[in-house]
Design a protein that fits this description.
Elements (H helix, E strand, L loop, with lengths): L5 E7 L5 H8 L5 E6 L4 E7 L5 H7 L8 H22 L13
Antiparallel strand pairs: 1-3, 2-3
Length: about 100
């Protein structure tokens, strides 16, 4: 089973060579793996504690056309990554952990 901070995303990038995608994403901290599934599909594996999807989308902005679906996907994936990161970094300090005093 994978660690909860590792996120895998399948991306569809049309007509992009491996070198172009690798060059765009290589310098991002937190990117753990990048593999090409077929000519258009890529599997990214990254650590949400160090990298969120918005940064990945910014690095790929010249390779993926800005359609409404892509913009919507960026917002959704960014929201999921931030939620996941915040939940993992949260320290249990709430009053709910203590029984009520009488």
């Amino acid at each position: 089973m994978a660690e909860p901070w590792i996120k895998r995303r399948n991306l569809r990038i049309n007509s992009a060579a491996y070198e172009q995608v690798n060059a765009a994403l290589f310098s991002l901290p937190g990117l753990l793996a990048l593999s090409q599934q077929d000519t258009k599909h890529w599997l990214l594996e990254y650590d949400v504690r160090a990298l969120q999807f918005g940064e990945i989308a910014s690095a790929l902005q010249h390779l993926i056309p800005a359609t409404w679906f892509w913009r919507w996907s960026i917002r959704l994936y960014q929201y999921q990554d931030e939620n996941n990161r915040d939940a993992l970094m949260h320290k249990d300090r709430g009053c709910c952990n203590r029984p009520p005093s009488r």
